[in-house]
Structures
1.
Amino acid sequence: MRTELFACGNRFGERIRQAYSHLRLRRFKAHSGFSFDDDVGLRKLFKIRLKPSNTVIDCGASIGETTAVLARSHSKVFAFEPNTAAFEILEETFRDNANAVCIKKAVLNSNKKTRLYLNEQRVRSDALPPPIWWRYSAVAWYSVSSSIVPEKRGITTDAWEEVETINLSEFIINWNVLSKSLKWT
């Protein structure tokens, strides 16, 4: 079916192709976690030998794909995600996981409030719907590319939400966190 969508000659054909090629690494398999087959970054994470005594910081955790991999090692994972839609899923996913601490803040070098610019597809009237395997809301699907950088490609400065930021250095010092790994997106 996906090949048929790619081959269609309508105006959405190229956008469908781009969406699937960009997000093919984010395939969700119900009840068994996420599929990381083609994701080089996550394969490298698997090679890091984490111990339960290690602490990992996941900046831009989204809905928790990387957080899930890191928490499986029984290490303490601090997952930062400023986007409301993504954070709701992240928090629900790790509600009963003592190894993951979800924090609804953007990571910067200061504690303040700033704008989180949203994916331009989220506000377009002709936006593609999420793929059929996506089990969350369309708003959560389009949370993937949100950014505090207004110049980032794929976001719009017309739609944003105000979010709190946290100074990562202060966080590490105040919580006495010595991180073995830091993932930043």
2.
Amino acid sequence: MLVECSSRALLNTIIRRSSPPQQHGRPPRTPFAYDVASQLPTTQLPTTQLPTTQLPTTHILARAVVRAAGCVLLVRAEGAPHTFLPGGHREPGEGLAECLCRELREEIGAVATVDTYLGAVEHRWRRDDTPQYEINHCFATRLPALSPPTAPVSEEEYLSFEWVEIEQLEAAKLQPAPLRMLLARSAARPTPWWGSTLT
């Protein structure tokens, strides 16, 4: 049977059937608002008061430990108070040994032979208030064309190289600092090591 009705009557019927029932004389709350409000813990802070943690920039580096005549080859960036091991950042698609060979070729124009993996040191610091995290993978590396006391000439203007005796790594302010002890120890006992400045 077909029942004809006006558009206003049909609209009123739809609204009446879809509306939630009244509770204790109070106007109904929409289901969405009710569900959200009922699940919020009473101790939750407004979004503007929630603490934020800035994630550090992560660096993966390959470092060369080049030894000769009781010395280690170190690098110093222009104006920097500290030194570091030759090498640098791994690029996408590179293995660590491949990265190290490329870095040494770019820095001093020499062909390197990457030998034993010695260990790693993680380090944390801040750059312009931005947290930084790096992990330095260190390899025993041979550069037959180089030997102390003559330091290699850098291919990059802002870098300079120097040979430093093992006993002088502290004075040279080698960074990360755990390398000073680890390099001295590994000269006599070449077992893999791990160091960190995070603790």
